[in-house]
Amino acid sequence: MSNDFAQFQDAFFEEAAEHLAVVEEGLLELERHPEDLDLLNKVFRSAHSIKGTAGMFGFNAVAQFTHKMETLLDLLRNGQKAVTPSIADLLLKSTDCLKTLIESVKTGAAVDEETVQRLTMDLASASAADSQPSGTSEKKKDGAPVPGRGITRTYSICWTPPDWLFQRGLDPLQIMKELRCLGNLTKVSLDVSRLPHLADIDPEQCYFSWELQLITEKDRQVIDSVFEFVREDSELSIELIETTSEPPTASISAIPTVESDGPKPIGQILVESGVVSTGVLDQALAQQKRVGEILVEQKAVTPQQLEQALQKQRQQESTAQAKKTDTASIRVDTAKIDKLINLVGELVITQSMLSDLGTRFEMNQLHVLLERVAQLERNTREIQERVMSIRMLPIGTAFSRFPRLVRDLSAKTGKKIQLVLSGEETELDKTVIESIGDPLTHLIRNSADHGLEPPEERLDNNKPELGTIRLNAFHEGGSICITVEDDGRGLNRTKILSKAVKQRLISENEKLTDEQIWSLIFKPGFSTADKITDVSGRGVGMDVVKRNLEALGGTVSIKTAPGKGTTFTLKLPLTLAIIEGMTVRIGRETYIVPLLSILESIQPTREAVKTVVGKGELINVRGTFLSMVRLYDVFNLQPEHTDPAKSILLILETEGERVAVMVDEILGQQQVVIKSMEQNFRKVEGIAGATILGDGTVGFILDVRGLLEIARREIAMAA
Amino acid sequence: MGKTALIVDDSPTMRQMVSFTLTNAGFTVVEAEHGKDAVNKVAAGPKMDIVVTDLNMPEMDGITLIKELRKMAGFKFTPILMLTTESAVEKKQAGKEAGATGWIVKPFNPEILLKTIAKVLPT
Predict the structure, then answer these.
(1) Nearest-angstrom CA–CA distance, A604 and A646
(2) Which residues of A lie inside 8 Å of B (Cβ-Cβ)?
(3) Predicted confidence (pLDDT) per residue in A509-535, tens digit
(4) CATH, residue A674
(5) Which end of chain A is more exposed for a tag (fewer CB within 10 A), N or C?
(6) pTM of the model
């Protein structure tokens, strides 16, 4: 449609996604409460919004498909049709289809035309008696012959508007003005014969009629459109009384006609002027060759060269497309921005107060300076919090897809399952929300398939037939916790152990704590499902869950009670850009260790350190031997202590593995902003990123995973 | 021009587009999410030169909003345009009866929007 609106496309995609979520949630809810009219209205409105806005961007496939859905929804909300399970199902499938349609206009991905066609037919037949043509396509006027330039016509117009004209905010003067824009208004006479006596005049009524004569180049339709809003309620006659081929006289302030997207192709002009027919033109066009083909025929390029060039072109096209889709936008509550602007204002005030103090500073004003600096610190902290909060979204957006998932799982497994959501308003970073969807999906599938028992088994165990999966989110300190809880059979200790032994994950007589046993289910390839079902049991999933979470700097833990259920608790940082870190010193260098990975810090006795052939240096921590990494060795530093008994050992954990890292001193805890090494320098092994410390120097953030690998490799080399 | 327009639509994208077009044409724009929001916003005082409203909205739909506005002294003769996807007669009729000045059928482009507004805007 218009290029002016193209800049709002991203906003449309974002909004459409929200509407789709509303439609989907609403439909699921409707299955349970088919009579809920408010709900139906809400779903209808969302579909309607998508249709209207999609039309604005010329996304006709989307608009037309949504129109079909809307027609059916309209019948439902008017009570002409009832919400049956099959209709709900059809609408849900259509919602999925609409999603792919929208996705396809966004990314250019292909659409399964067949599904679209089939669903369109299904929707039409479900709406049965509906025979309305698509309401999205506005009637086009370009079929009418365009009046030739220079031909002027004289029209006689008689208009008696309805007496309530003013009450609709209409002004006859406006209409006169618009007519004058069309050409020469040669005669305007006002008929006041209907005007009552002064005492009886209602000033809000229109008593007048007009007789007008208009000389114009424009045709009747244009004049008609001037009266567009009143035509149906007025007495109106527009008669052509004269046609002349003279150019219009006098000064006509004709509005410029809006058309032409550049010159027409020659073929079209020839067809229009009647030189050739469309058929002949099409034949000629079919014979037309591509530049590449001609060049190959002339032997200017080889077919291989041409193919390479074409490939390059395609690549460029696809990268251009990829670039386009990469930009993500975020919608922010204006209140949040207003607060931010306020705070920036305060920051500016503090800054000017400080610079004022700086110009005439004397030592006795030190306390003032400290006070101002404290104020600056407060401002900075608040701004930091506010800016972070802009990226924060309620987790409900990630939860919204699960009611549908559980409905489908319930149908597939034949179990009755209800999903209870809570804490949807808990806010966390947008990137975290986007990445948390998949792990949660896995966990819910797992709960539905392994956790909950079939209905008969539940009844046998005196449990309600309806199984419950609870999804909850809440803040805890600087992190967010998400729990997935089911009231199913709980994890089976013996089954997990025997399976783990069978798969050689552990040896037969290994003593394990409960926690260690539960964490076995996160090992790659582990599955206790007796048969592989459509839902889960292939042993992919749980290890992916753990990996995904760790990539986000989070952890997952399990609580379970036999016969009562299982709870998975995911703990995630609020944001990825700032971490809580422990600053440590080695020699004269400062490093930062992510606080989440620190279990404890100890100062070992000399006897606790052992060197074992093939395993390197080990440290005995209350009976468990952990491999020890001397950080100064890894990073080639000059340490203060080389004796473990004099230095500090940090026990770090990642992905269930522990390692002891030797440092000189622990300096303290602080929040650090992560600056990427890859973006600013290159990847360095054992380093996750860098940050700027309080004194202005650069500090490196340790990558615990990487450190473990370094330790392992050194042992292998030494062996 | 220095005129003020009230835009009522529950779709933020739609609001942005209308608002963008009108702001570029020199209007001061007040946005409202639905009828109730609009009534609250105009109750606070600002006088509007034109109102552009969607019809299907939560809380209070467009037709009710038009009726409410026409009851208010400051809006008795203010031009009110409705944005509608339906070219259906009954919607137009209901709108007219409520006191709508005119309508703009979605989808529209900026020129049509501005032209239609110019058509009804008192000078």
Answers:
(1) 8
(2) 1-2, 4-5, 8, 11-12, 14-15, 42, 44-45, 48-49, 51-53, 55-58, 63, 135-136, 138-139, 166-171, 174, 177-178, 204, 226, 228-229, 233, 258, 331
(3) 777 788 788 888 887 767 655 544 545
(4) 2.40.50.180
(5) C
(6) 0.53
